[in-house]
Amino acid sequence: MRSFERQLLTLCTAALLAAAPAPALAAGAEEDAKTLFARGRELRGAGQCEQAIIAFRSALEIYPEGLGALRNIAECEEALGLYASARRDWWDLRRAALQSTEAKYAGWSEDAELRYRALGSKVGTLTLKVQGAEGRQVQVALDGKPLDPRLLGVELERDLGAHTVELFYGGAAPLTERVELTPGAQRVVTLTVPPPITARDAPAAPGAPAPPPSSSAVRTGGYVALGVGGAGAIATVVALAVRAGAVSAVEEGCSPAGDGAYVCPPSLQGDYDTGRTASTLAGVFAGVGLVGIGAGVTLLLLSPPGPASAAQGAPASAARGALQSAELSLAPWPGGLGSRLRVRF
Question: Which residue in 21, 52, 151, 262 is deepest, having the highest Cβ count within 10 Å?
């Protein structure tokens, strides 16, 4: 709304100036400025300093010699807590009053300088710095407005409150930082330009297939899988050997009962438990060995160069053959498990 009012006032003023004859331009401009100044005074008296500043600015643009508009602007800004803006306008008023020959502005330069210095402790300052921009085109914006590069590293007075700093460096989005200024604060914001993205680090385009893993990584995975499979095969052989010992002990200490069954004394309970546990472990280790060896061979075959050796399949064959051996089982016998055991192979 403020911008619309200001534009409307400016357009009306421009139209009046364009329609007026040349000798009457100066007088007409002063009269229009007085009208706008009066409007600004009404708004200020009503406590509407923000709208009053718009009217005073328009009056000052039409008739720069009317320093009363500039003084009212500075006073309104000070009332609104815009101390940095007020200090700038008080200093502009000091300079304009020193150059004016109008008697009514006598002493205004001293008043303006006093107000300028009195507000010095109330403003906050902001210093912006950029790192890593060597040889690159960058642009810093402060509160949405481009900042002159010559002001980088310079302590800038700004009004209190939140400010937004943006660094445009050619990336997909600018670097953004928000900073809060409080009375007397001296804030320094350093923005670091990210290093250029190389082709190797650039993200893959949407829909593009992911690059395949390196050959050495695949081979390493294959060797690791073969190692796990080999360990599983060795553990299977050991478990089968323990199971074979238990079966042998049961066969030697038991009497045949027909149909492949045996009658055994209770003292062979430990051998039976050992054989059963060994059978279970043999199955588990054999599965691990088969999976590991199969995965290792597959990875090595898929990794160029270096086809997998066919000899790696030998432990798998041994483990598979071991799984086909007889299973150790226990069957109850009349009189209870504690007195007689019947074992079937």
Answer: 52
Quote the CA–CA distance of 285 and 292 in Å, as a whole number: 10
pLDDT at position 244 is 79
Delineate the domains of the chain, giving CATH numbers in brackets.
Answer: 2-118 (1.25.40.10), 124-192 (2.60.40), 215-344 (no CATH)
CA distance linking residue 275 with residue 251, whole number of Å: 12
User: Which residues of the chain are under the pLDDT cut of 70?
Assistant: 1-27, 198-215, 239, 246, 250, 256-263, 268, 272, 296, 303-345
DSSP state for residue 199 in the 8-state scheme: T
Burial state string for 138-162 with b = 16 or more CB within 10 A and e = fewer than 16: bebebeeeebeeeebeeebbbbbee
| pTM more than 0.70 | no
- Closest by alpha carbon to 260, among 326, 321, 338? 326
Q: For residue 311, give every residue at least 6 positions away whose Cβ sits within 8 Å of its Cβ, in sequence order, or none.
A: none
Residues 6+ apart with CB under 8 A from 119: 78, 83, 86, 87, 90
Strand bridging mode 124-131 / 186-192: parallel
Rounded Cα gap, residues 98 and 189, in angstroms: 37
